Amino acid sequence: MLQALADGILTGSIIALGAIGLTLTMGILRFANFAHAELITWGAYMALGALAITGTFAGPTPPFSFGLPLVFATLIAVVLTAALALLIDHLVFRPLRSHTSHMTVVFASFGVSLLVRMVILLIFGGSAAYYSNELQIAIRVMPGLRVMPDHVFTLGLTLAIVVALHLFLQKTRLGLSMRALAENPDLVRINGIDTRVVVRWTWVIGAALAAVSGVLYGLTVQLRPEIGFQLLLPLFAAAILGGVGNVFGAVIGGLIVGLAESLSVLFVPAGYKMAVPFFILLAVLYVRPNGIFGALRGGAK
Amino acid sequence: MTKHLLLSGAFGLGLMASALPAAAQSCEIPVGSVLSITGSMAAIGKAIGDAGQLAVDQFNEAGGVAGCNVKYILRDDQGSPNVGVDAAKTLVEIEKAPVILGAIQSGVTMPILTSVSVPGKVVQISCCSSAPTFTQLARDGGTGGYWFRTLPTDRPQGVVMANIAKTKGYKKIAVIHVNSDYGVSLARSFKAAFEKVGGTVSSVTPYNQEQASYRAEVNAAMQGDPDSLFLIAFPADGATALREWISFGGSQNLLLSNSLRADEFVKSVGAQYLTKAEGIDNAQTEGPSVDAFNKAWAAKFGSAPNGPGLHTMYDAAAVALLAMEKAGKPDGTAIRDNIRAITTGDGEVIFPGPDGFKKAKELIKAGKPIRYEGATGPISFDQFGDVTGPYLIWGVGNDGKLTVVDKWDKTRVADAIAEIDK
User: Fold this and answer.
1) I need a surface site. Which of A223, B259, B283, B311 has the fewest CB within 10 A?
2) Is the pLDDT assigned to residue A104 strictly greater than 90?
3) Could you say which residues form the signal peptide (chain B) (predicted)?
4) Alpha carbon of B188 to those of B67, B201, B203, B281: distances in Å?
């Protein structure tokens, strides 16, 4: 029971990181970006590629299974993922956004996601990869609860990022413009804010979070070209559950999805665990159609 | 095109059948065969039909069966149960065949067995249907003993693994298996066998393929503090699950299924964690009887018998015909009662081929016992009509290379199964 709780929180926090990026882009850019999941895969693999260079300088730092090399590799991955997101926006979404209907952009994001996945497959191959071939053995904290240092790190990092992001959205000028754009695009333009800059930064932040989420996923599970695709449904469930555009909502949504999956195994056969978060999603949307923290109108809170 | 070929094939068959009696006996015994010559299994069905034809031709060359020539009647089931049942009905009711060979797919074989063979008291031997439901049906008495198959099921694997777990001294084992027909039935047969030899299965946890993480499943499997794990999985997902299992402090006393015998799996998990692991896999059947079939096939068709169902189909036909010779008459029940008499015991060993069958006929005439060793090696049907195959036990060396730790030939497997069934 305790163990399932701990696992749920861990899986939930990784989903939450991805869902924050998704919820931001959905709230501000106003379309469901299916390619977001692929940014996660891209980030994870870019870190793997960068690790081949940075990994030669230093070994892991106990008690973690990784060291400074992975931290640097993650920074490189963040930059490369943001670059990819901006490139996709420039080549695909921006031309489509101004001219065509909403659905075209959504379907374009499907195409982009396939393209990115195949490129990763082409470069890195289809078999599972790991940042380190060493396995970290869990530490027994108390009877019935084993924890790995990497997991504690993941949790702590998620928490720090959420707080930082919250402060950014509440206190900085850029954060305020992002929220304003989500609330009312026309009014933002009238006030002389360059929406293109705001959109660009939304992509950068969303992609950076996706990359970090991908690295953490690769660190705690494994790297495969399909990881983004496998996370796609949980991500959307978390974002919608929390209310589109709501950062804290996405975190809570992620935790609910993670916990529902891991706790459900105690009550229903493991084969059905995938369905449980969606039952919860249905139930929540029935009571609160805009998600738990969703306002009546869209917007980043 | 296919239809045309089929017609001309049937025509040729008819010609052969009408030409042969003049050379040998005047009577004919029909042997029916229902296979997928068209439909989803068409790619392999044609060659499987040829394997049956080869056995029948060799018998006729050796002088026929029970004083008569054998007439091989091949019918197409088109991969559909209705068509298959109709074909089998025609074979039994109009052609009066005492034996039906086939079908390929379990979904076709089953309705033929329950609605044609068993009520008609006709022996049915399948080359290719591996579903565990047949064993269950036989156990419940639904086959009347008329059902046999020459393809091993996954039950022997479960029995062998249970024996290994017992030898290694594992008391409480957790099972994690892929949620498919294969995984479910292997897990079930392992559990039954392991409990029979005195062990406990602490939990059986299914997992769905292609999931992000298996922490939840691993956690469920860890309930009850098992001292070992039997993992039935495919390499990629299996590596994910096993890494999580080991990370969480799960035992490194591991048993692994045949599908995990892959370098990719060992590399992903890390060889250092697999040094205590042992896995099972099907071993290649070898021996002079197998060579005899391979040679005969190559001589007739000009290619090596590479393809599913060829060896097993040949043996299905040969076993049926030898049992008929031993019974002395083309009667389903008599054939059923003689099938084990010609495959077990200390009789003289008979190999595939006209010479072997000629020798068998002479020995049977003299009242001496025979034991047929076929294209799949020695054959021994258990009480449910299932055969076993040879297996190898593999492990992982310190250098990460896959090694062969042990070999289980058919006799050893059969003994282990007999021990469980006792």
Assistant:
1) B283
2) no
3) 1-24
4) 46, 11, 11, 18
- Domain annotation covers residue B140: yes
Closest residue in A to B264 (Cα–Cα): A127
Overall domain count for chain A:
1
Asked whether the beta carbons of B374 and B319 are under 8 A apart, the reply is: yes
Contact call for B215 and A227, based on CB within 8 A: no
Domains of chain B: total: 2
Residue B296 resides in a domain? no
Q: In chain A, what residues touch B275 (CB-CB under 8 Å)?
A: none
What is the mean pLDDT of the segment spanning B266-294? 87
Statement to judge: residues B323 and B231 lie in one domain: no
- Specify if A277 maps to a domain: no
B272 and B139 share one domain: no
Nearest Cα to B111, choosing from B147, B144, B84, B148? Answer: B84
In a mutagenesis test of the A interface, which of B181, B219, B245 is the best target, namely the one with the most A β-carbons within 10 Å?
A: B219
Domain ranges, residue B238? 155-283+390-421
pLDDT at A151: 86
Say if A66 falls within a structural domain.
Answer: yes
Instruction: Please report which helix (H) or strand (E) contains residue A169, including its range.
Output: helix A149-171
Which among A134, A136, A137 is the top mutation candidate for probing chain B, defined by the most B β-carbons within 10 Å of its own β-carbon?
A137
Start-to-end CA span in chain B (Å): 53
Asked if A128 lies within 8 A of B213 by C-beta distance, the reply is no
Both B40 and B91 in one domain: the answer is yes
- Phi, then psi, of B52 in degrees rounded to 5: -65, -40
Q: What is the pTM of this model?
A: 0.70
CA nearest A234 in B: which residue?
B212
**Residue B268 near chain A (CB below 8 Å):** yes
Dihedrals φ, ψ of B30, to 5°?
-80, 135
pLDDT (mean) for A48-73: 82
Domain membership flag for residue A44: yes
Domain encompassing residue A50? 24-224
Residues B145 and B176 in one domain: no
Q: Do B212 and A271 touch (CB under 8 A)?
A: no
Average of pLDDT values for B389-414? 87
Amino acid B25: pLDDT: 57
CATH of residue B411:
3.40.50.2300
ipTM score assigned to the predicted complex: 0.70
> In this complex, which of B213, B222, B240 lies closest to A11 when CB atoms are compared?
B213
Mean pLDDT, chain B, rounded, equals: 87
Return d(Cα B268, Cα A102) in angstroms, integer.
Answer: 42
**Nearest residue in chain A measured CA to CA from B205:** A270
